Amino acid sequence: MIKQKGILFVLSGPSGVGKGTVRKSLFEKDTNLKYSISMTTRAMRQGEEEGVDYFFRSKDEFETMIEEGRMLEYAQYVGNYYGTPKQYVEEMIELGHDVFLEIEVQGALQVKENYPQGVFIFLIPPSLEELKNRIIDRGTETEDLILNRLTEAKNEIEMMDKYDYVVVNDNIEEAVSRVQSIVVSEHCKRERVAKEYKAILEGENK
Amino acid sequence: MIKQKGILFVLSGPSGVGKGTVRKSLFEKDTNLKYSISMTTRAMRQGEEEGVDYFFRSKDEFETMIEEGRMLEYAQYVGNYYGTPKQYVEEMIELGHDVFLEIEVQGALQVKENYPQGVFIFLIPPSLEELKNRIIDRGTETEDLILNRLTEAKNEIEMMDKYDYVVVNDNIEEAVSRVQSIVVSEHCKRERVAKEYKAILEGENK
């Protein structure tokens, strides 16, 4: 068979669109994907494991990694750093595993700058009305916050042009199946297959 | 939902690779694809229907269509013309149907010249050894013909670079499933979705 390197797939989209649900459902079906493990400076909680839930690092270590360009993306949240270390992703990809990263829009844009050969998938709601309903259904937001998040979502949707694929999340099963199709089809792209295949044929001709 | 135009998918590959089998199996599963109906100057046979098996035309009519640039591709075989009329494909695509065309390599390259916005899929054998076995298994060829066809296959495989996707036909079910993934994933490409989606959002904002 034709050996291929793995591919980094990045799933993003406006908050409230259902990225997490799609990711969970995808991982229940597809065991070939490796989930990209994040790095954080926050304290380890009970039940969490190093290298499983997060890579836990000190603030100094994290900042050194940022300076050395070893993060695909990072952000600060409530005084702690969270981010995606480059090394894990690159190692998995060299070994031929696909890596899957689910991340908010700003993070995805950082990944694209640092790893443009990734495949970027944008999850969208069927309509803004539907997105509003989903945010309201969470029941955790005040009316002002809902309006803020909708405005932010509209701005984020403008970022669509930076992505390779757009998947409508009208139905979880359908959305997951579309993402799975993108994974399969990316591996069939001629530029990923042709060189290796021709080398196999050359080998046979000897 | 987001309305999209249809897409022309062209499946090709060296002779003996199993294009016909993949196409038949695909059409048993996927009823959204329209099969592109060929045009011919050969006589209608018993049981055949105009516009179902072929569009039957006189030699004069066929040659007029060639002159007027109304064929996506054509070839002569045993004194008759065979080809793909542009109009049927364009009408289906305008109506939002995907059109599927299974064709040998020379024909596919003609289609690419006349309709570069199509999606071109190249079916390959897992190895030349396997292709040789498949040609021998048909049992209809002399040894010389088998060698000729293998040489031709090698030359045709060089044409791979003209294609968007390469699908290995190691197993019919797998190959069909890969083609189905390509169909789904092409419809998720950002450039096919973004403009229409933004128009929907603009509409909602009014």
UniProtKB/TrEMBL annotation, chains A, B:
Keywords: ATP-binding, Cytoplasm, Kinase, Nucleotide-binding, Transferase. SUPFAM superfamilies: P-loop containing nucleoside triphosphate hydrolases. ATP binds at residues 13-20. It comes from the Bacteria. It holds the Pfam family Guanylate_kin. It catalyses: GMP + ATP = GDP + ADP. GO terms for molecular function: ATP binding; GMP kinase activity. The keyword Membrane does not apply. InterPro entries: GK/Ca_channel_bsu, Guanylate_kin-like_dom, Guanylate_kinase, Guanylate_kinase_CS, P-loop_NTPase. SMART domains: GuKc. It is found in: Cytoplasm. Its EC number is 2.7.4.8. It is an enzyme of class 2 (transferase). One of its GO terms (cellular component) is cytosol. Belongs to the guanylate kinase family. Essential for recycling GMP and indirectly, cGMP. This is Guanylate kinase. It comes from Gracilibacillus halotolerans. The gene is gmk.
